[in-house]
Specification:
The chain is about 65% helix and about 0% strand. The chain is mainly α.
């Protein structure tokens, strides 16, 4: 009985194997004749269109390189190192976007490279002061402001900078003008 079942099984497999093999060969030859459709689409585009993205990519790469060079020249110490600049700015952007879990993971890497954590705090403080200057509809508004705050964390918004007095060049800080306080109202005499 067992032998008969195996013979039937082998006969069925032989009958199905031949048409399956022919079908696979047919599909393979059809695909080989048609070629890659994506390659055909790219070959029909003019060559100027293909070079435009590479020019944009080159400009973007040059801009990033210039930002790292600017940061290393403006900041003394490890906060000006390219790895600290890159990781630190990412941490600040992630904190701004309320992605705190990812920001803390990046902050661990930032600390591992020996970068100063106080610079991230000062940059985020600066970014919060420029809240109204960041337009979510402008793509580079946030990244440009983060870079400016990374370079100079003590930057002030224009309105606040005009309201505060400029520091003197003698090194001593000028006393801040006291705000005019309204006169205290005298307590009314109580009638007895």
């Amino acid at each position: 009985m067992r032998r008969r079942v195996l013979q039937v099984k082998n006969a069925v497999l032989h009958h199905l194997a031949v048409p399956g093999l022919i079908l696979l060969i047919g599909i393979g030859s059809a695909l080989a004749q048609s070629g890659d459709l994506r390659a055909q689409d790219q070959s029909t585009k003019p060559p100027a269109a293909n070079s435009a993205p590479s020019a944009d990519a080159a400009k973007e790469t040059q801009r990033k390189t210039d930002e790292f060079v600017e940061a290393s020249q403006a900041i003394n110490g490890p906060a000006g190192n390219p790895e600290c600049v890159w990781l630190g700015r990412r941490v600040v952007v992630l904190m701004w976007r309320d992605d705190l879990d990812t920001a803390f993971r990046h902050l661990d890497l930032y600390d591992r490279f020996g970068c100063p954590g106080g610079h991230v705090q000062a940059t985020f403080r600066c970014l919060v002061r420029f809240f109204s200057a960041i337009d979510p509809k402008v793509p580079d508004s946030l990244s440009g402001r983060v870079h400016a705050c990374w370079i100079n964390p003590a930057a002030q918004p224009q309105a606040a900078a005009a309201a505060t007095p400029a520091p003197t060049t003698s090194g001593a800080a000028a006393p801040a003008p006291a705000a005019a306080a309204p006169p205290a109202a005298a307590p009314a005499p109580t009638a007895k």
